[in-house]
Specification:
globular; 403 residues; 8-stranded mixed β-sheet; alpha/beta; homodimer; 4-stranded antiparallel β-sheet
């Protein structure tokens, strides 16, 4: 007998038929004698529909507290419907909202973090032989007000429950059947991995592979929760296990990822004084702007240029923050490029294999693709290229390493 | 400065425009310096849509606990949207779910009764100068599980808050602008009353006037909460005040109501032994079947007949309960008549005016309408007639007394 936490995303419960499908997956595990806790997101487009209703009433943007009150109704509907589907199969079940399941968070509405999970109610329901269906993405703060965890928060809810209950396995069901070496819709030769480490998964998630939410992987790593990524539509197909240490396979590179949600900003013609980089990145940090690849280069006339990438959504904010620095830094101009994409390869142990970077650059060169920026870490190499070249670049790099 | 509780039904908040309309009504009261607590139902058809989703997943009927979990999401959406609309007007507001507002109920899911209202959170929010928007219809039980109060429960929520806070006024906004002497859509000469007593309102509600939920009127009477029925679409028009004692007006009869949701059942050919009526009505009470008008008459051969009316929805259940009694009571047959309606006149002090009943029967006689059963109380007279005659009967009786 095992204790299994299963998480199903919004598309897995988008309509009555899919809800019944999920109920059947759960029933199979329960009937084998396992204890089962299920975390569900809001159905399909519910969240988007609710946001639309809110903006219709207040186009300038409602308060985040009321937004969380509104959006958390989405999971309330999906947990009740999934519980009803499980009831229909004749199995004992109880649905729990975030606060009922014991999720206590900080008060940052919309992007709350879990401060504590008091799992006593979940444990009591499991002891009563109930299947427990928990609303993902939500909790309450110290004022007893409802908070939401932000995008991908249901993954985090599932991992938190698995960590708290010391579950044997935490299965994340999505619409893909595992983690691939590249996007299988784009790269025909993409291969599914049977295992991957937390760190590799983190790099892949950050780099736009969009399989698992990053915070959930970080939490899984911290509490050593074994994750499995599976497909709810093909529940018989084994997925990809994410864990701390995996047996080394012949494949060194674990995946190739593309991230088109990136913009390059260059501050051109800076005086070469100490503290300039600090001033630039400090003002961005104060505005919660995440900076990714950073490049500093010598410009003309002994001045220097600093370039970096940010998410497209933070582009404007970053530029106006920098413009405020103009009087202090006296730079020449700010140059921007939205038409870029980041392509990265990820693999543990990469830093001990010096040929990896050269092989990647060679593959890009042979495909006639120009590299604008380069960034490396212990387990990844990222290049910034023109957006139009991105898909070809992924294919070329994937073929060089994995085919 | 007054403390006002305002309740808006689902049709008053059915879309973004109506939500803004309600926000403006609230703002006007708040800006006059009043403290305002607002109780809202789920938007328009939300509840019906959610029920449909539930039955799609489990056509045999989901458990009541999960149904309450599902349906209570409806008010959660409407309180958040209304709070956002009030925010847009620049006023301070906070939305509260049933449990956050302190509604503690028993555990009868779907038809829960309020056991206690701990209004401390509402009071704290009022002290912070917030407009407080509360989800009607819902609470939690001792297991911290969500319950709903059943049809019309939002009226009860509003009255409970008004009672607990000792509010100066509890305004119930509906799609009519007050309580009329008859259905104004059917009877052209129907007149709006400026005041009516709790008891009269209770009789009118029971008799199918469908303006206020009965439990809410009972609670208002018990705690002496002054109610006002108003229209959310014509907020400037004064409504009808419901209270304990009103100044006597020349009009003796307060209203004429029609109830088509009734069936007559006759148990024919009963032996004339003691205890027979007890046995019949005891078995019906055990099955929670509400009996309205009762008539006992002498039949042929020294046997007797007992006739009574029940709601149409309980008709079948009542008949099968009686059939089980056949071996014990040895009656001849059960006769049923679904094609009936009840028409009633209501007015305090009626019992001291012996001419009232005669005047009602005369009006019906002159309209050529046959009376099947009669029932009277201190403040009402009801007659059972053929369903097809009901509208004519209301008009004839209304004209006789009120025109």
């Amino acid at each position: 007998m095992a204790l299994i936490v299963k998480k199903f995303g919004g598309s897995s419960v988008a309509n009555a038929q899919r809800v019944m499908n999920v109920a059947n997956i759960i029933a199979e595990d329960y009937q084998k004698g396992n204890q089962v806790v299920v975390v569900v997101s809001a159905q399909g487009d519910t969240t988007d529909d609710l946001i639309e209703k809110a903006l219709e009433i207040n186009p300038e943007g409602p308060s985040k507290r009321e937004m969380d009150m509104l959006l958390s109704a989405g999971e309330q509907i999906s947990i009740a419907l999934l519980a009803m589907a499980i009831e229909r199969l004749g199995l004992p079940v109880v649905s729990l909202l975030g606060w009922q399941a014991g999720f206590q968070t900080d008060s940052k509405y919309g992007i709350a973090r879990i401060k504590n999970l008091d799992a006593s109610r979940i444990e009591a329901e499991l002891a009563r032989k109930n299947i427990v269906v928990v609303a993902g993405f939500q909790g309450i703060n110290k004022y007893d007000d409802i908070t939401t965890l932000g995008r991908g928060g249901s993954d985090t809810s599932a991992v938190a429950i698995a960590a708290s209950l010391k579950a044997d396995l935490c299965q994340i069901y999505t619409d893909v059947d595992g983690v691939y070496t590249a996007d299988p819709r784009k790269v025909k030769t993409a291969q599914k991995m049977s295992e991957i480490t937390y760190d590799e998964m983190l790099e892949l998630a950050t780099l736009g592979a969009q399989v698992l939410n990053n915070r959930s992987v970080e939490m899984a790593k911290k509490y050593n929760v074994e994750l499995e990524v599976r497909s709810s539509l093909e529940p018989k197909v084994p997925g990809t296990i994410v864990k701390e240490v995996i047996k080394m396979e012949k494949m060194l590179i674990r995946g190739v990822a593309k991230d088109s949600d990136t913009s390059r900003i260059s501050v051109v013609g800076l005086q070469d004084n100490p503290g300039i980089a600090f001033k630039i990145f400090n003002v961005l940090a104060q505005k919660n702007i995440n900076v990714d690849i950073i490049l500093q280069s010598i410009g003309r006339d002994g001045t220097k240029d600093i370039s970096f990438t940010v998410a497209k959504s933070q582009h404007k904010e970053a530029v106006s923050a920098l413009e405020e620095l103009q009087p202090a830094l006296n730079f020449k101009e700010i140059a921007c490029d939205d038409d870029v994409a980041k392509v990265s390869i990820v693999g543990t142990g990469m830093e001990t294999h010096p040929g990896v970077a050269a092989k990647m650059f060679e593959a890009l060169y042979e495909a006639g693709i120009n590299i604008k920026m380069i960034s490396t870490s212990e387990i990844k190499i990222s290049v910034l290229i023109n957006a139009k070249d991105a898909d070809r670049a992924v294919e070329a790099v994937h073929d060089a390493f994995i085919r």
